[in-house]
Amino acid sequence: MSDQNHCRDDDDRDAGGISDNGDDRPLYLRVRDALMQRIETGKWRPGQVIPNEHEIAREFDVSQGTARRALTMLTEIGYLTRRQGAGTWVQEDSPAVRYRFFSFYDKNNERITPDSRDVESTIARANSKERLALELDGKAKVIRITRTRTRDGRPFIAERLSIPEAHFPNLTNEDLPDALYDHYQKVHKIMIVATADKIDAVPADAPTAEQLRVKVGTPLLKIDRIAYTLRQKPVEWRVWLCHLKDAHYVARM
Amino acid sequence: MSDQNHCRDDDDRDAGGISDNGDDRPLYLRVRDALMQRIETGKWRPGQVIPNEHEIAREFDVSQGTARRALTMLTEIGYLTRRQGAGTWVQEDSPAVRYRFFSFYDKNNERITPDSRDVESTIARANSKERLALELDGKAKVIRITRTRTRDGRPFIAERLSIPEAHFPNLTNEDLPDALYDHYQKVHKIMIVATADKIDAVPADAPTAEQLRVKVGTPLLKIDRIAYTLRQKPVEWRVWLCHLKDAHYVARM
DNA sequence: TAGTGGTCTAGACCACGAC
DNA sequence: TCGTGGTCTAGACCACTAC
């Protein structure tokens, strides 16, 4: 705890607050991360109402303003929803949340929620591109997954992705749902909070053309994505090749 | 001013603070907008140091925390830069700022700053797509601009855009620089703070192929963008057709 | 009506930067 | 050393929601 407050009694440190354990970051960050952990580990479940800011302040032995700052940050990154007069909840686990990084919309500007098929996964030593993308050392292994994403039963995205095997033990033995980021969070306690996409247009090569049922040379949208955790660590590299008939990818700045 | 503060004297209202003038929004928003206006109108110029938060608080007759909140918001949207121990400045007018919405990078992940040529502009009654995109009524006029964006002298983007004539008087008589958003702000006091891009891959048609010096049918990246002011008003619709050899568009979420 | 989040204040100490 | 922004507190009132 900080000693900078002139009003508090320094003798009661660690009598209910969060211990500093060598963590000299500001209080609001420590409270934020402690609350975040409760959400990520499922102690506080989606949809659940959490204690009000007075109670949180008392629990961590900080002022209401500091607790509030932590809660505001968690609201901004989408972990929490707050409503004046009502309370604070963990963000609902809706399709809109599960697919919030799947930024494809149809011609009516409604979000597309895809299905998947032909899922295949293998484990291998990371190649040079994977080591660069995922910041891995020479001996690291990766899990490679390929899928065909479909929309109303028709293939529209050829997907291939790589993730560090060390972070996702046993993943190859699990049933993989369509929404992988959601799966990472629930099963592997890894939350994706940011992505960086490199985008270009490319002609379809022969295998991709067959996979997406288009002619060779058809213009495809290529999206090359790195996904990051809150600590800015890259944990997934994926490439999408998309044939978006009557649809589009949306980017906001 | 608010009456909710138990410590302040209600009789000194409007004796130096910001008047409410029917504006019942929170103080921090009123202070934010007042400061923003000074930046947008050029009263505070890029690179200039502005008064510290105590002085701003005193000027607007609010607490330091309230002034701070306004300053923090302006920092988050890129109007200001703050450095502990040093001070607060209006954001420098660098190429990185001028082209911050031009999100193209080369193969070394360095930002591309384009040139322009073959600029043409006309004024016309808005068509139905323009009325929809820019939220205009039936009689509104628009300025249409077409340009070829070049990189090291070679064309790589075919650009066409529409803006409401009412917001940009005399623009067709002005020398247009490469960075239009910067021009909008400096000359027309309209600041672009957000964009929404719809993205897809399309084959090059004949005129575009000639403009970009590629074969008909070459895959092009198509970016369909609406640009918004801080008040969420759409003020520009632009379409880019891009042939990105050894480059890519970047989107972050 | 009770309880929640939202706004606001006054004032303290700390970390950092310029001199 | 002095001035700046950054953190933190304690406590007030307001606006809204659920009961």
3D architecture notes:
The structure is a homodimer of 253-residue chains. Chain A is of the alpha+beta class. Chain A has two domains: 10-90, Arc Repressor Mutant, subunit A, CATH 1.10.10; 95-249, 3-Layer(aba) Sandwich (Chorismate lyase). Helix content of chain A is 25%, strand content 32%. The first copy, chain A, contains seven helices and eleven strands. The first copy, chain A, has helices at 27-40, 53-60, 64-76, 95-98, 128-134, 180-188, 206-212; strands at 49-50, 80-83, 87-90, 104-106, 115-125, 141-151, 154-164, 194-203, 219-228, 234-242, 247-252. In chain A, β6 (141-151) and β7 (154-164) form a beta hairpin. In chain A, α1 packs across α3. The longest helix of chain A is centred in the first third of the chain and has 14 residues, at 27-40. Residues 1-16 of chain A have low confidence and may be disordered. The A-B interface holds A 101, 103, 105, 194-203, 217, 219-222, 224, 242, 244, 247-253 and B 101, 103, 105, 194-203, 217, 219-222, 224, 242, 244, 247-253. β11 of chain A pairs antiparallel with β8 (194-203) of chain B. Chain A binds a DNA duplex (19 and 19 nucleotides) through α3.
